[in-house]
Design a protein that fits this description.
Layout: E1 8-13, H1 18-28, E2 31-36, E3 49-52, H2 54-62, H3 67-70, E4 74-75, E5 78-83, E6 88-93, E7 105-108, H4 109-122, E8 126-128, E9 133-138, E10 144-148, E11 153-156, E12 158-161, H5 168-173, E13 181-192, E14 203-208, E15 212-218, E16 224-231, H6 238-242, H7 246-256, H8 262-269, E17 271-282, E18 290-291, E19 294-296, H9 299-302, H10 311-328, H11 332-361, H12 366-383, H13 390-393
Parallel strand pairs: 1-2, 1-12, 2-8, 5-14, 12-19
Antiparallel strand pairs: 3-7, 4-7, 5-6, 9-10, 10-11, 13-16, 13-17, 14-15, 15-16, 18-19
Bound molecules: flavin-adenine dinucleotide (FAD).
Flavin-adenine dinucleotide (FAD) binds at residues 13-19, 36-39, 46-48, 50, 109, 131-133, 162-164, 168, 298-300, 306, 311-312, 315.
Amino acid sequence: MNQTSTNKKAVIVGCGIAGPVAAMALQRAGIEATVYEAYEAPADYAGLFLNTASNGLDVLRTLGIDVPSRADGFPIPRMVMWSGTGKRLGEVANGVRLPDGTVSVVVKRGTLQRMLREEAESRGIGIEYGKRLTSYEVAEDGGVIARFEDGTQAEGDLLVGADGIHSRVRRVMDPEAPRPSYTGLLSLGGYALGPRIPPTTDTQHFVFGKRAFFGYLVRESGEIWWFANVARPEEPSRKELSGISSAEWKRRLRELFSDDIDLIGEIIESTQGEIGAYPVHDIPTAPTSHKGPAVLIGDAVHATSPNSGQGASIAAEDAIVLGKCLRDIPNTEGAFPAYERLRRECVEKVVAYSRRIGQSKAISNPVARWLRDQVMPFALKHFANPGSHAWLYTYHVDWEEKVAV
Ligand SMILES: Cc1cc2nc3c(=O)[nH]c(=O)nc-3n(C[C@H](O)[C@H](O)[C@H](O)COP(=O)(O)OP(=O)(O)OC[C@H]3O[C@@H](n4cnc5c(N)ncnc54)[C@H](O)[C@@H]3O)c2cc1C
């Protein structure tokens, strides 16, 4: 339920995942928010697909947003691991079942983004496009003035940087803040149609291939969503990646997976449309997530590699925790440190965990690979149970509970 208005205004920079969720959480806390997005128009088709884990679904639900029923997602309670030769290595739960039976869902990023944007708009939240933040400054009254590339500006009592991994807000807040760190992996993916693979009901499959890692799921319609992670020690430039055609990626990927189960090559070959490719970065730690009237949430402060399937979920968690802190602590000097105290340890743990998973995907040494394939079945059976990941998947925010000052 909405708190009575505080007469405070927030400028939120970025309308990806964290931005619209923060706007809705702040609205509940009685703060009027407007979201400013760099894209000229809604980018509803940007990105491939991502996991929205049970913890993310849970906090979105607290804000009255039901992702599984609206985002055309694929429910994935479990993940099955295979070696490149087709040996089953084991399985691991993808999150927990919420009390009503809801499980983690894999959704197209663009669909999730559109759904959150539309939901925010339906609640009366303003979203302005073509507003690329270039800088901001603290106003004389302690508020904030945000400046955009088109020469316009916006004023508010506080500013929320939800502008993603290459955050401009972070750079203005702290020019010395750590830059995103390259993890040594490329991520590629696409959508395929053609190979007769039965629907992978409830399951996403992962193959630790000889030279690269492959993940896929097959929907009832026969559409296959896939991604690959390829080790690449030196970071490629954007120019290099954008200069590689999808046909060339198909050729390179087929070669990389030529010693692994045939199914991978068939899926890659049947890909329709573009194969997206990007270098995987993360931000393991940032000295601070706030300064004066500005605060960072989501990838802007703790971008995680996608290996743990948590980027969207922890961004949503940040947004709702920030909303609660601003509701219960009347000034940003108190609310922002409380937000950081409640979030830092958890998000840094996720980023580190995610990077560790990435390292197991790209093992070039044949002995180390053999060892991984021997140890993994035992490790998955004995350590990768829902209890061992409870710290991640059962994160819950009770909106009614007051934040301790
Ligand atoms: C185009 C795109 C595609 C992606 N594809 C995938 C994917 O396929 N798989 C996956 O796991 N994750 C993907 N991600 C990352 C994933 O969405 C995020 O890790 C996660 O959802 C956290 O969300 P966020 O809101 O913090 O950041 P983001 O989702 O990155 O959103 C940040 C938003 O801020 C906007 N922005 C950036 N700079 C400025 C500025 N100066 N002024 C105003 N607005 C600005 C961006 O345009 C974007 O809309 C993608 C992100 C983007 C932006």
